[in-house]
Prior knowledge:
The protein is built from 15 helices and 18 strands. It is of the alpha/beta class.
Amino acid sequence: MTLLCVPLVARTVEEMVADAAAAAAAGGDLVEIRLDFIQGFRPREHLPLLLRGCPLPALVTYRPSWEGGQYEGDDTTRFETLRLAMELGVDYVDIELKVADKFMSFISGNKPEKCKLIVSSHNYEYTPSCEDLANLVARIQAVGADIVKVATTAKDIVDVSRMFQVMVHCQVPMIGLVMSEKGLMSRVLAPKFGGYLTFGILNAAKTSASGQPTVEELLNIYHIRHIGPDTKVLGLIANPVKQSKSPILHNKCLQSVGYNAVYLPLLGDNLASFLETYSSPDFSGFSCSLPFKVDAVKCCDEHDPVAKSIGAINTIIRRPDGKLVGYNTDYIGAISAIEDGIGGPRSKDAAISPLAGRLIVVAGAGGAGKAIAYGAKEKGARVVVANRTYEKAVSLANAIGGQALRLADLETFRPEEGMILANATSLGMYPNTDGTPISKLLKA
């Protein structure tokens, strides 16, 4: 079972002791005590206080600044502190590969049997090739590590796949993590690929590395205790993506129906590259949002008729034969929400929508705009498409028999009573949460 480790980065011993208790209450399996974060740290006075009352197994790390930590002193003092932690019965000690040989000589092989030695390497710039990662793992194994730890940085979400490939072939226990938001998948899927542990922070203010989720997210949103080798991977690929509530909704649904899968936020840069890299049957389905809904049409082998007509896809399913099938369900959700919002008496004829005959102005001609415009036209509405790039507005308007405007023209567009404005632009979404396609002060 992959362990859930909570890093403790408090500035005082008292706060760190309190955070250790909070980590246990939150459901952590062990804590990482980051000694380099403690101000005025005095090893012989403070280590016993930290370790003897710790409610969880402890990993002690004293990370130097040259490996991304806070410690600025000499190695001898640091080594003496780690050796003292071993003598006090700590469960794990982390030492950097760069000085692992020196540390092994320093302790002269006198490591308590209970204590496991983690030898770590951190790359804060990028994720090396599979070959370079495998060679790095071999070097770490060769110095006598009980557990290999490799942490790299994701420049692109596809970088994480290289870490997964190395992890599943490692012959000793391995911690393999990819930092940054684009590397979140490595942290959540650690149990699927055999990771010895993964890190979950107490809250956003107590992070020790980029891209760490909270303990609550790992346990209550991603249900990490239930992830294993056979777990299917689903997710929302978008850019940006962290604002989405989809993981909360979908993971709750997956749990309720008992389907062995996890749904992740996937911060991507190139949809085609992502789908080509994560082509295993285990990566079995994805939602697509901005800016990939139109790109998804080219990436799919087959399309449902609606998606083909709209020219945008928000759902991709990987069939058992590996082929990707694209669907568009945006128009159903968006149009249903608009119809419900209109309210009022409905026609006795259920086939007639309350949108019939209404004027709807769709701001945006991307994937979402195409879906709304298509759906509104199908319901009998009169459609106006406004877009920053006028040519795209014209193209969509012509396709559905509507009218085209420039987005700026909405400032002077005179609405009629009962008109509907649908914002299908990125304005109003993270990070432009206060943005609108028209002035908030504009009066009808």
